[in-house]
Design goal:
Layout: H1 5-10, E1 21-23, E2 28-31, E3 36-41, E4 44-45, E5 53-54, H2 57-67
Antiparallel strand pairs: 1-2, 2-3, 3-4, 3-5
Length: about 70
């Protein structure tokens, strides 16, 4: 599953209302500001705070490096 650009432009982090970034390898939507990863299951983003997992700074940096 891939999240298209139009969908990404509509979605926002439910906590800070910031931009979400698609992490295809993990099937997650990432909020860099809150360092949270929201899962996508059966093509449905789970944008609930209790569904999110916290990202360490190191994990977020690794994702940024792999994106480049």
């Amino acid at each position: 599953m891939a999240v298209d650009e139009r969908t990404l432009n509509i979605l926002a982090c439910p906590l800070c209302k910031g931009k979400l970034v698609w992490a295809a390898a993990q099937s997650e939507l990432i909020c860099r500001g809150d360092r949270l990863a929201f899962p996508v299951r059966n093509d449905i983003p789970m944008l609930l705070s209790h569904e999110a997992r916290e990202l360490s700074r190191e994990e977020l940096e690794q994702m940024e490096q792999h994106k480049s």
